[in-house]
Amino acid sequence: MRFRKIHGAGNDFVLLSDLGPEGDKEWPKEAERLCARRTGVGADGLVISRLISDRPAVLEVACFNADGSIATMCGNALRCSAWAAHRDYGFQQLTLHMAGVVHEALVSDDSVWVTAEVSEVLPRRLQVVINGRPTWFDSADTGTEHVVAIVDDVDAIDPVMVGRLVRHHADVAPLGTNVNFVQAVGHQALKIRTYERGVEAETLSCGSGAVAAVVVATMRGLVARRAVTVHNRAGQPLTVRPHDARPTRTQWVGGPVTHTFEGVLA
Ligand SMILES: N[C@@H](CCC[C@H](N)C(=O)O)C(=O)O
């Protein structure tokens, strides 16, 4: 089976997009096997993309986290799938389905954009003490669960230690959550670090996390409701901007996609 190793601003995936007859595997187990950094290909997630129509261009995309759990929304997996469909079929504008939700995608030479559907922000959802200081997290569902803390300095925080604590916090049980630490860094710009549920580690970027950061930062008056640059650990910023037709419900998230290598699974 052929695969692509690909990343969206540092969030890396094994992408299967031309499944033949071997199309029905136990994907959660395959995800664990393929994503293992030492014994597999190594990735934050496994993405399976199927072309279900070419006129209009429609893809069905499934994303499994490295631990085999299903990601109901993964902005970077959608962006990587749209990039691959552009490469394979020349599509520039696509519709993507993930976990029953419809997303739009736009592919240009240097960036890939997808839409994320956003729920209302729940302020002060939980509190933990970080470096001796009680810190509130707001929650925002951007297709999957995220909490966001606005902090003075994201680099003064241990995102794995605190992320794990928050991810397992009783106030977000039983689903748990992805955890974002966000700092305002000047005009319409944020800096972010994200602990991802299902990867159970800090990832270099997270599309739905960037969207959650922007909706929380907007609600808190740190940025205006227009394009915001979100600086991540990869040094490959994502940009989040409101959808023209549905500015309060839908956000675009865009940035680079990099195809690292291709291979054949043994
Ligand atoms: N990295 C993703 C989000 C992946 C989903 C997450 N780990 C979960 O299970 O909620 C993104 O780019 O949005």
From TrEMBL:
Top-rank EC class of the record's enzyme: isomerase
UniProt binding sites for substrate: 11, 65, 75-76, 178, 196-197, 207-208
Single annotated GO MF: diaminopimelate epimerase activity
Active-site positions on this chain: 74 (proton donor), 74, 206 (proton acceptor)
Compartment list: Cytoplasm
Entry GO CC: cytosol
Stored InterPro entries: DAP_epimerase_AS, DAP_epimerase_DapF
Catalytic activity: (2S,6S)-2,6-diaminopimelate = meso-2,6-diaminopimelate
Pfam families: DAP_epimerase (PF01678)
Pathway: Amino-acid biosynthesis; L-lysine biosynthesis via DAP pathway; DL-2,6-diaminopimelate from LL-2,6-diaminopimelate: step 1/1
Enzyme nomenclature, EC number: 5.1.1.7
Site entry: Could be important to modulate the pK values of the two catalytic cysteine residues: 146, 196
Subunit structure: Homodimer.
HAMAP family on file: DAP_epimerase
Function: Catalyzes the stereoinversion of LL-2,6-diaminopimelate (L,L-DAP) to meso-diaminopimelate (meso-DAP), a precursor of L-lysine and an essential component of the bacterial peptidoglycan.
Assigned protein family: Belongs to the diaminopimelate epimerase family.
The protein's name: Diaminopimelate epimerase
Lineage: Bacteria, Bacillati, Actinomycetota, Actinomycetes, Kitasatosporales
